[in-house]
Amino acid sequence: LLSGVGFESGGLAAAHAIHNGLTAIPDAHHYYHGEKVAFGTLTQLVLENAPVEEIETVAALCHSVGLPITLAQLDIKQDIPAKMRTVAEASCAEGETIHNMPGGATPDEVYAALLVADQYGQRFLQEWE
């Protein structure tokens, strides 16, 4: 009962909606919920205009425990613009948790944030090597 109550009032927002959007493309189907939410968290930080240092801190934590911080790490390597458009549209569907964010988010904003989050992840990986 408590986990159900906690889930219903857990303040879900963009990260989980992006997970749901990622299920609309086959590439990432074999990844766990938490792996997709991790990338969704980075994308949510971009949507929130979080400082780059904060995004890097979260990305470093994700990377240190083996969570994906790039689209390639979710096996999304081809037709990225079209696939991210699909993810963005699905993430913003009626009833999705992304609408819990102050001001919500449009598919265009989510699309751009997905690509920026991926670029940050790629840059961080290069810097850390």
TrEMBL record:
GO cellular component, as recorded: cytosol
UniProt keyword annotation of Oxidoreductase present: yes
Stretches of the chain forming a coiled coil according to its record: none
PROSITE patterns: ADH_IRON_2 (PS00060)
Record has Cell membrane as a keyword: no
Annotated PANTHER family: GLYCEROL DEHYDROGENASE, GLYCEROL DEHYDROGENASE 1
UniProt name for this protein: Glycerol dehydrogenase
Native species: Salmonella enterica subsp. enterica serovar Rubislaw str. A4-653
